[in-house]
From TrEMBL, chains A, B:
Belongs to the aspartate-semialdehyde dehydrogenase family. The keyword NADP applies. This is Aspartate-semialdehyde dehydrogenase. It is an enzyme of class 1 (oxidoreductase). Pathway: Amino-acid biosynthesis; L-threonine biosynthesis; L-threonine from L-aspartate: step 2/5; Amino-acid biosynthesis; L-lysine biosynthesis via DAP pathway; (S)-tetrahydrodipicolinate from L-aspartate: step 2/4; Amino-acid biosynthesis; L-methionine biosynthesis via de novo pathway; L-homoserine from L-aspartate: step 2/3. The active site is at residues 133, 246.
């Protein structure tokens, strides 16, 4: 396959994740023969640049996928549900960034550093699902701790950037902050409440048990990706006025005691994860530092003062990169490397 | 004591907490006969308004407290250590907002809604300590849950406003945000890192066990105020780009199972605490809503999916009011009501 090249479609190309996918396909020199950019009616006619070439954005429809090898979807769950079947029917493998197929038993849910072999399951449906952005950031450090000590329970509070709501989320924080700076009234549209200088403990819709869908994604996706239905996750997700990197504060309880030194050793060997934990020198992970980077960052690694089989961690990762576009492109790389 | 009035000094009068103390002494019609405003050299000569009168700010020194009944200190731990003894010697009762005396066994640490009777201990040293701002916000809901179910373990992640660093913290977020809006470089001075559009998992100094002093305050102050050394607290404190209200995400494990319905009932009876928990109607506590209010707010009350003896809560309270100035004034009210 060394010199094979692929026809790639990006559905949702004009969104924040879609545009990051384009940048990553360039940066990582993915073997693209032809790139097709797809979006809803509203964005067709726009052009985007790929390797110095202008490519026109075309309207996403059932006929979009003729001759496509790999279809990267990031246009929301509704569009994935509507158009992924047509892409598969046309012969493409779909890598879907939405929540539409993640929990379906015949669709693999993959973080390449964690469960690369799960990708084999793509042949059942022709679809591979990309996990939720916060799930990915949270699992990068959980995986090596789970392999060593078997994770029993995770209590996680998130600090999620506005990019998680796409380009309109980024624009909303920008607009609200500028309105504040000019002394103008602040208008709310992308989020349920003002996000500038505020916190919103509400991401995705509420379920009857009081948790949001976003929170339950952390529970169920964690179990599926780590392949262990006995892991308990107790989540609280919160939107914060930060542009593009998600952070989580996690308490991780394991069956086997790990301890700080061993944890640092395990975490520092995890591909795609960097330990930054020299707090007295002012070095710990932060969103403004993680934004634009491919790696996730973990620090503030401490033994839980109340349970010697638990650790506290602080993890930060770019939501658009490892939390979304990068993970999808890594899945595509794995796919062409092993199967196409 | 009905008609008695008191001479009151505010040390640190020009700070964010000091100015809020003045507003609260007015709002609550505290029986002030004479008000003395004290600050460091830098602020002397300034004037502040109290009940329509201009009062000059005087230099804080050992001679400042002659004839003072109640000295409210909010000028930092160093100044409290330096000048509180002189205030006590001059006959004043000191109510100290700093961390200087909080953990001393002969100094009461008081939240009036929680442990009002502890105030009696003030006679030993003439000092009453006001708890850390995040401790107060966290304990307002913990108290009724502890009384009912005995709290065993709290895993808490904070989302702390810049006002926790005083007027200079507020000014730093304002200045950095305006610089961003104008496309100018962002300068860092009050916090160890940029706070605009960022999160800083670093409040107060780091200790050898990897926790910050701020985090350990939550551990030790909780035990002292609730009078139970067996309560475990596992804390992570984070500064967020919010102006004046602190938020905490807490997982609370109790000996006796409480459940959501009972928890709501217990929490709604707690004075100074308001339950806002109609998430499907978009009603949950948020910093922009809590800022400027005296009450603390709790919502997102959920049973922990991993432990039926634990609950997840989201709590928000104005850091300058209940987290600092209001609690201090409430202590003063209790003091004059019971002892002076």
């Amino acid at each position: 396959m060394a010199n094979r090249t692929y026809t790639v479609a990006v559905a949702g190309a004009t969104g924040a994740v879609g545009e990051t996918m384009l940048r990553l396909l360039e940066e990582r020199n993915f073997p693209v023969r032809r790139l097709k950019l797809l979006a809803s009616e509203r964005s067709t006619g726009k052009s985007l640049t790929f390797k110095g070439e202008e490519i026109k954005v075309e309207r996403l429809d059932d006929g979009s996928f003729q001759g496509i090898d790999i279809a990267l979807f990031s246009a929301g769950a509704t569009r994935s549900q509507e158009f992924a079947p047509a892409a598969v029917k046309a012969g493409a493998v779909v890598i879907d960034n939405s929540s539409a197929f993640r929990m379906q038993s015949d669709v693999p849910l993959v973080i390449p550093e964690i469960n690369p072999d799960a990708i084999a399951g793509y042949q059942a449906r022709g679809i591979i699902a990309n996990p939720n952005c916060t799930t990915i950031v949270m699992l990068m450090p959980l995986k090596p701790l789970h392999d060593y000590g078997r994770v029993r329970r995770v209590i996680v509070s998130s600090y999620q950037a506005v990019s998680g709501a796409g380009a309109k989320g980024i624009e909303e924080l920008r607009r609200q902050t500028l309105a504040w700076a000019r002394g103008e009234p602040i208008e709310v549209s992308a989020f349920p409440q003002q996000i500038a200088f505020n916190l919103i403990p509400h991401i995705d819709t509420f379920q009857p048990n009081g948790y949001t869908k976003e929170e339950l994604k952390l529970v169920f996706e964690t179990r599926k990706i780590l392949g262990d239905e006995s892991i308990g996750v107790s989540p609280t997700t919160v939107r914060v006025p930060v542009f593009t990197a998600h952070s989580v504060s996690m308490n991780v309880e394991t069956e086997r005691k790990i301890g700080v030194d061993r944890a640092k050793e395990l975490l520092s060997k995890m591909p795609g994860l960097v330990v930054i934990d020299e707090p007295e020198a002012g070095r710990y992970p932060m969103p403004i530092f993680a934004a634009g980077k491919d790696d996730c960052f973990v620090g503030r690694i401490r033994e839980d003062l109340t349970n010697d089989h638990a650790l506290n961690l602080w993890v930060v990762g770019d939501q658009l990169r490892k939390g979304a576009a990068l993970n999808a492109i890594q899945i595509a790389e794995l796919l062409v490397d092993r199967y196409l």
